[in-house]
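Submission sheet (multi-component)
Chains listed below:
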Amino acid sequence: MKKKNLFQRISSSFSSFFRSIRNGFTGFVNRFVLGDIKTKLSYVIMGFGCLARKQIGRGLLFLGSEVIFILYMITNGVFYLSKLPTLGTTTQGEVWNPELQIYEITQGDNSMLLLLFGVATICIIIGFFILYIWNTKMAYEMQLLEEKGKPLPTFKQDIKDLGNKNFHITVLSLPIALTFAFTILPLIFMILMAFTNFDKNHQPPGNLFTWVGFRNFSEVLISNPMWQQTFIQLLIWTLVWAFFATFLNYVLGMILAIIINKKGVHFKKMWRTIFIITIAIPQFVSLMLMSKILADQGALNNLMVTLGWITDGERIKFLTDGNIAKIVVIVVNLWVGIPYTMLITSGILMNIPQDLYEASKLDGASPIQQFMHITLPYMLHVTTPYLITQFVGNINNFNVIYLLTGGDPKSLNLCQAGETDLLVTWLYKLTVNEQNYALASTIGIIIFVLLATISLLTYNKSNAVQEEDTFA
Amino acid sequence: MTNMKTKNAIVNTICHVGLTILAVIWLIPIAWLLMHSFRETPTGAFPSALIPETWTFDNYIKLFTDTQLFNYPRWFMNTLVVAIASCIVTTILVLLTAYAFSRLRFKARKPLMNVILILGMFPAFMSMVAIYHLLKAIGLSQSLFSLVLVYSGGAAMNYYIAKGFFDTIPRSIDEAAMLDGATKNQVFWKITLPMSKPIVIYTIMQAFISPWVDFIFVSVIMKDNYQKYTIALGLYQMITRENIQQYFTQFCAGAVIVAIPITILFIIMQKYYVSGITAGGAKG
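Outcome: structure written.
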């Protein structure tokens, strides 16, 4: 079988998506045409087919969900949907109340809640639609079973199936529901926010915000020089950081593991435990501590002054000079990350076939050559997924930067960001300090596109490697 | 031959010396933390002496008695409650999801796994603001319950490692049991779970530890509600610019108290951690 490349795969998955929509639609119509009166009525009254065929449990569930859905739409749903295109029109205002002699606040529209509930309503509609299609399918299936004279599954049987044939439904419904509520719904909400002008000057409930289309994206990428410059500078630093943080940790951690595993090195367990202790200390503790040790007035500078290595005026700006700070965060991240890599790679290193080393030794290979030509290729081959996750994790590595430097030193060339800020800490500052949600969401989406592209390309490549030549 | 031997001896010595230097570098900050948690406060945040001149237990005692500004015991209890609750929910969710993706075959399996992969590429923080407003809309913001929901709500997405572990259990065992008439439900509880002790322990510990070390989510959810802070956020307040001079040693003491149980837990679970990651992560 010829392996498809990435773009062929993407286009084929798109076409199969549209094909399945078309099939679904024709199936929907066909079932109606071929259905008997019970099935046809199910298209209007959900669960009718089941009820008419004495499947009371199923029928009541379908009917109940239809009733609840209609009630919700009448009481709330239609209202929120109608507000979605404008996100509210009445601003909160103050009206003079002559009787009480005070200004009263009149309730305006709250754009944020309108958007939030609007999104929720659309999700509910989609969910209901799926249920509705399922209902028509089931009605038709039952009709076919009835025509063949086969017994229809009882409600008891349905419940039993949940423990066996349909166990995946039982098992996954709770995780999916929670993931939906706490990940997907908020994400959709935030993605939509990138297309609004929700910033400091458009804060609900006092003010309204509204749709602005792709303006935020075009400003970040093209038209707003301040944002554009900040974005590009932080993007470059984020990539540089992620590269060094991932690969330096990886290689140095592996070398540490090799040294500890080396024949002739004693107290292996003690060495390992010493390094593991540092992983076990909560990261926020060690990082906050480091930031205080390395501060201008911090312990390390104090110590060097006392020892007479530097004078009081020459304190080293570990965290307050842009370029030094960038190096320092990478070095401190080594302190945090090397033991972790050591822990992970130790086990895998022992799996490398020993005869490879022995053979190369006979050919006169030096330890460095062995590392470059045997260990590294083998490890890269086995741990590509781990490396990708690490790289993605480092692009989003909030803790190290935020707790160590807080993104500082600040720079006048950057908009609300400091020199060591990553895109993700900039995003944090934009939301928490600046309340510029629109810009923050835009950045978030750009980070996503970046990560998705990197992972897709590398995953694709690593799959190809695995299939085409298996190592050793 | 003797040449070879001396060469080996030299290399080994270099290795040992190197390891010792590295070990010292890695241990200094921790030793420093420990020493300063026993230091008397009046000398300011950072005295120039490496080793404190006077030693005292005051910092630890004050943490639990002087609760006017920083209510450490309260934060500790908050964190403990949240950690236990979210640990239970998270473990259940992660194991169920991992089992479904590893063992059950159904139409939506691949698409769901892809969706989760894609969701994971959004910065986790991005959805926090929306979650905050969502919780506010249903009247749950700034409560410990909401924190549990936030920690365990997205937990199912971290199913990889457990799935990797389940994948290593031979399927033939399941099939044999099902031939004998066991349902999938029974297979999960009576066969898969008992065989997966390492990954169950790993999942439980991981879920228990994360509320102790999380910092971002609490700060968004709790805002300025001091009484509901967890340890991490509380300790962070102690070393802000205004407080650091007076409270740095107490911060050290507080950090030591949190770090000890977590370190012990981590050293115990290290074995499972490695087997979990190497089984689940390296295969992809």
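Remark: The longest helix of chain B spans residues 244-280.
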